């Protein structure tokens, strides 16, 4: 069997990275790229820059990556599904859950692999974190808190911070805890003069009882990408900007101070920063998609999973609008 023929729709800020990775992974040939805006980053190389998804399909594809603005995901995905092309779309899956439902249904009915590019799941720190939690190293999990903040990205114009950055945290939180959301309440603000929100704080609970808290914004000069999981034996801190995972263990320090011994809390223990292989998340994600297309076991983010994350985003927006908690 020859290499899979891959096509890429969108070669802008994110698409250029997909082009590089698709050229690097084994078993895949990038045979066509399309972008109505042209090739401002010069990633096409010897390939013609096609004008639309129809011309991309005409190149004869086994699989495709869609990295165009969210508003165009549904149209492209439905056309690719109708043409029998296995497809991954960048997150969020779509602009609305109704669009996402139609996309997921189209790929399921066609028997095709439909995936969503929630690349943070493939961050080495989070992969290691999930493995250690699953192995019971933290004991019972009490809380997951994420902080994702930094300067405003000029490339984002069609969605707010919730669907852009928040989608990462909502997806990875449910994935790390292996439990869906049960409730969320949120507050947002608009400070940059755009129609979409640029700051959100959301708090709630997962179906397994784990408390969650998310602080997300485009208004901070300090870039931060942290996931803190606190549990029975201490706390894991995953920094996805560096791929580092650190464990802060609960300590046992004897004391004769009566007032302190009466408090049954925890104290500071050993701090361990783990050493493990750190592969590029985007490459791991594309390899998983390739394997799924080949019918091999693969840990992809399905369109159904991507749709659940989009519904969480929508619930957060609704909660912020009417100041009421949303349940799932």
From TrEMBL:
The keyword NAD applies. Keywords: NAD. Residues 127-236 form the GFO/IDH/MocA-like oxidoreductase domain. Residues 5-118 form the Gfo/Idh/MocA-like oxidoreductase N-terminal domain. This is Putative dehydrogenase. One of its GO terms (molecular function) is nucleotide binding. SUPFAM superfamilies: Glyceraldehyde-3-phosphate dehydrogenase-like, C-terminal domain, NAD(P)-binding Rossmann-fold domains.
């Amino acid at each position: 069997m020859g290499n899979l023929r891959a096509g890429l729709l969108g070669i802008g800020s994110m698409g250029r990275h997909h082009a590089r990775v698709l050229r690097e992974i084994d078993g895949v040939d990038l045979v066509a790229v399309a972008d109505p805006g042209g090739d401002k980053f010069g990633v096409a190389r010897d390939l013609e820059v096609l004008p639309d998804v129809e011309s991309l399909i005409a190149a004869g594809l086994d699989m495709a990556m869609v990295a165009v603005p969210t508003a165009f995901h549904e149209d492209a995905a439905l056309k690719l599904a109708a043409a029998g092309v296995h497809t991954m779309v960048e997150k969020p899956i779509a602009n609305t859950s109704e669009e996402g439902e139609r996309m997921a249904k189209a790929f399921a009915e066609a028997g095709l692999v439909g995936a969503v590019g929630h690349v943070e799941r493939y961050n080495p720190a989070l992969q290691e974190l999930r493995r250690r939690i699953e192995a019971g190293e933290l004991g019972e999990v009490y809380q997951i808190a994420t902080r994702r903040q930094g300067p405003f990205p000029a490339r984002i114009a069609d969605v707010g911070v919730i669907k852009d950055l928040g989608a990462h945290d909502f997806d990875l939180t449910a994935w790390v805890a292996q439990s869906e959301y049960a409730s969320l309440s949120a507050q947002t603000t608009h400070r940059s003069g755009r129609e979409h929100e640029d700051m959100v704080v959301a708090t709630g609970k997962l179906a397994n009882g784990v408390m969650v808290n998310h602080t997300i914004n485009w208004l901070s000069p300090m870039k931060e990408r942290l996931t803190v999981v606190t549990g029975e034996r201490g706390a894991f801190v995953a920094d996805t900007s560096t791929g580092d995972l650190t464990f802060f263990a609960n300590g046992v320090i004897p004391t004769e101070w009566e007032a302190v011994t009466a408090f049954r809390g925890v104290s500071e223990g050993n701090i361990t920063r783990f050493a493990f292989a750190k592969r590029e998340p985007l490459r791991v994600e594309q390899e998983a998609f390739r394997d799924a297309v080949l019918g091999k076991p693969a840990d992809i983010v399905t369109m159904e999973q991507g749709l659940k994350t989009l519904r969480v985003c929508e619930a957060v927006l609704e909660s912020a609008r009417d100041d009421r908690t949303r349940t799932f």
